[in-house]
Amino acid sequence: MTPQRSAMRLAALLALAVAFPDPNSRGDEPPAEAPLSWRAEYGAALEEARAANRLLWVQFTGSWCPNCRRMEQDSFSNPAVVARTRSEFVAVKLHADANEELAMGFNLTGLPASVIVDPSLNVLAVHQGYLGPDDLDGLLGRAAASRAPRHNPEDLADAPRLALELVGPPAPEVLRTMAVSKPLKKEEHAALSGYCPVSLVSDKRLIPGQAEYAVSHEGRIYRFANLVTFNLFRRDPERYVPANDGLCPVEKLENGRNASGDPRFGALYKGRLYLCASKDDRVRFLQEPDRFATVGVEEGGNCPHCLAQGGQAVPGDPRFSLTQGGRRYWFPDEDHRSAFMSLAPSSTIRR
């Protein structure tokens, strides 16, 4: 058979295949369920879940994890899982090695890991290890059933409101005001009036802490909204505790008195939380944050290591601080802080 005739016969067979489809196929079958629509960025997925008032499904995976691949093949394409996810969840898939801090915040030790949280980051379900289609659907279903009743946005219309200000170079930026989930309530034995410091710094919201998630740090009791915020604080408490021991820096500098700061009048500056005693004090803080932020910090906030080694006044960063002998110091980076710590008795240092 010549090449020309072979080509003509192949074209004819292809035409027949199109004209006469497979007799074993059923034309009335519904189209296959589309696969899950995975988000790839945790922060954006959380905001989407909050906006839609849905649960957030965080799936931790790894390219080297065989059971992660099994779940890809067996479970994520299951029609029941896909349908439930579409109606109740926002799903985000994260590589654990690139999101190690977040994974540790959920206290994870193995892969694959499936974590379900509500929009307020309350953990509803955690499973580490392989889940087949039915087991995964069951995990999602139980998490959805255990969720607290959804609130009408009008329910919070009369609630107290938190207006936390964020300032930092080059220009101050005012954050949007967010509703407080519960009325303010004084708790005598907990710092920040019992509110979660991690939620205040990370989410700019006053979320009441839970008694079962509490830790003592530098003589103060802090309470946390859930296990995630509890673990994040334990890993890096300096990031979340109020600067100046929670005292109002404006009252200290301008009036010479120690006045307790109020979490309703907080300001975030260079990653640190400052509590002012009143709305007027916060306005003053925002006008000159560099002046007030260094209240209670030795050397005017300059790096003590740079001063000692070269006599240079190098501004420190509150994210790299430590307390030695009851005195607070700032450093421009981790290297300078480590160098200073190597010269000081370890028993006198607190980060």
UniProtKB/TrEMBL annotation:
Alphabetical list of SUPFAM superfamilies matching this protein: Thioredoxin-like
PROSITE patterns xref list: THIOREDOXIN_2 (PS51352)
UniProtKB keywords: Signal
Residues in the signal sequence: none
Residue span(s) of domain Thioredoxin: 11-148
InterPro entries per UniProt: AGR/TXD, Thioredoxin-like_sf, Thioredoxin_domain
Name the UniProt record assigns to this protein: Thioredoxin family protein
Species per Swiss-Prot/TrEMBL record: Paludisphaera mucosa
